[in-house]
Amino acid sequence: FFSPSSQTVSMQGGGTGKLEGANILQYLCQQPPALLLHLFSTATSALAVFTFLPPLSKHIVMRLLPLNRSVPLSMTKGWVHDDSQSSLEDAIRLGKQLQVLQVRGEELSVQPDFLSSLRGAICGSAHGQPQDEAFAADIDPMELNNIADSAWEGLLNGMVQHEHLKDRELRDNLYDAHLKFRDGDGTEHITPLGFQFLLQERRTQVWFYLISYMGRCADMNINTVDALRFVFRIAFASVGKPYAVPHLSESERLVLRHVSKLGLTYHVKGEDVYYVTKTAALLAKDEAEEEDSERHFLVVETNFRVYAYTSSELKVSLLALFTELVYRLPGVAAANITRQAVHAALVRGITAAQIVHFLQVHAHPHMQPVKGTQFSPLPPTITDQIFYWEQERSRIQVSPGILYRNFAEARQFEEMKRFAESLGALVHANSDRLIVTVRAEAHEQIKSFWKAKYPQ
After folding, report:
1. Inter-residue contact 413 to 433 (CB < 8 Å)
2. Confidence band (pLDDT; 50, 70, 90) for 180?
3. Is 390 exposed, middle or buried (0-12, 13-18, 19+ CB in 10 A)?
4. What pLDDT is stored for residue 125 in this prediction?
5. For the whole model, what pTM was predicted?
6. Measured in whole angstroms, how far is the alpha carbon of residue 336 from the centre of its chain?
7. What does the pLDDT read at residue 129?
């Protein structure tokens, strides 16, 4: 039977639209302390972790960085306002989990290995050694960008359009990351997590994929520390500059081969140099810094019509996950946001918040708010309606129940009703039809009561 749900969904959405499992700091917090200390022996890794820290954690590290001693914990309380003391405690706790900070007694300091490496990074030793230009010239930026886009979009096309990815390693990682699965007939399907993955911006997608890949490194005989170091290194490398392959460890070369398939690097097998692409550079940026001239391609109107100014089959396929395509012309596609299309997306596992997030981050520059304002690039009627459609699926919840009927007389009906009410198990009662509905878990008690009352 159905009963009204006691849960409500906020009009502002059921979340932020972000993808769980794409946070590198959360991944590092789950690693053994010995692995993190080993990781911090290089300047690039220390700089990367410092860059990913929340602002308050960075502030604490920078306060302690010039010092060669610890400071009393009581002193740190003066670094923030009184109403931010809990945030300070959280920042210190995060630093301890990451082995960036250490607390001994009532003294706080930066972990020595991290301190030494971060100081080295600040002094300019965080970059790899580029090959001499006489041996390896810089690659054409346009060509490198095309290589990066083609490789990553090829992976996404393999998910959206159910194209069979030729590379087994990429396919296996999509399965292990729970982005795709095979049914009993061997047919590939996208998982609910996979649909959520597709609607994220590229930086989030890349981090999610890489974190999943890191989790498989041990099974592939790849040193996890070497893998992390290499990812951090290319994140802070110069795009388009040649870097030496002979300096890499065997594990790092295996990671290089894999990320080249994703478009994070460009490396021709057998050559002694590789090039870092703009996709790898996204890893070291904040979401707000992720800029792409082709990223903002959507115009959303108040009549629920969406225009996609793009020639990309992938982008049109992503839009079709929650809209109904109306027509396509060279360079533009038109679609309608409908109740049926949004409900179909919700059934696949996509949330309303993720749909709104996708529309916002890909909104055309003419729809973007003026800097310094808080206005959404989407019409309020659109965002509200999408969340209303999600609420429609949350208005009721299904739970088992027992229906009692065919009472001999009204007195028996009233006795059953009162006893069910006393148990707090009554769901529905109809005195005209002599019907009582109760929660399933109360059935045994009610049955015992009834047998005791009417043995026959």
Report:
1. no
2. confident
3. buried
4. 57
5. 0.76
6. 26
7. 47
pLDDT tens digits for 295-320?
Answer: 789 999 999 999 999 988 889 999 99
Residue 346 exposure: Cα atoms within 13 Å on the Cβ side = 19
Rounded-to-integer distance, Cα 230 and Cα 213, Å: 13
Structure token digits, residue 249: 């460890």
- The one-letter code for the residue type at 101 is L
pLDDT band at 162 (very low <50, low <70, confident <90, very high): low
Q: Label the pairing between strands 305-308 and 332-336.
A: antiparallel
Do residues 359 and 319 lie in contact, with contact meaning Cβ atoms separated by under 8 Å?
A: no
Phi, psi of 108 (to 5 degrees): -115, 135
Give the tens place of pLDDT for each residue, 51-110. Answer: 999 999 999 999 999 888 899 999 999 998 988 899 999 999 999 999 999 999 899 999
What's the CA gap between 116 and 204, in Å, rounded? Answer: 30
Angle at the Cα of 146 (from 140 to 150), degrees rounded to 5?
150
- 329 DSSP β-pair partners: 332
Q: What CA–CA distance (Å, rounded) separates 374 from 164?
A: 43
Buried b (16+ CB within 10 A) or exposed e, 244-254: bbeebeebbbb
Sheet holding 242-244, edge to edge: 242-244, 273-276, 265-266
Residue 290 in 3-state DSSP? coil
Pair 247, 214: CB distance under 8 Å: no
DSSP secondary structure string for all residues of 62-121: HHHTT-SS-EEHHHHGGGS-GGGHHHHHHHHHHHHHTTSEEEETTEEEE-HHHHHHHHHH
Is the pLDDT score of 292 beyond 90? no
d(CA 137, CA 133): 5
Measured CA to CA in angstroms, residue 93 lies from 104, 337, 389 at distances of: 13, 44, 40
Give 180's contacts (C-beta < 8 A, 6+ positions apart).
Answer: 159, 171, 174, 188, 189, 190, 191, 194
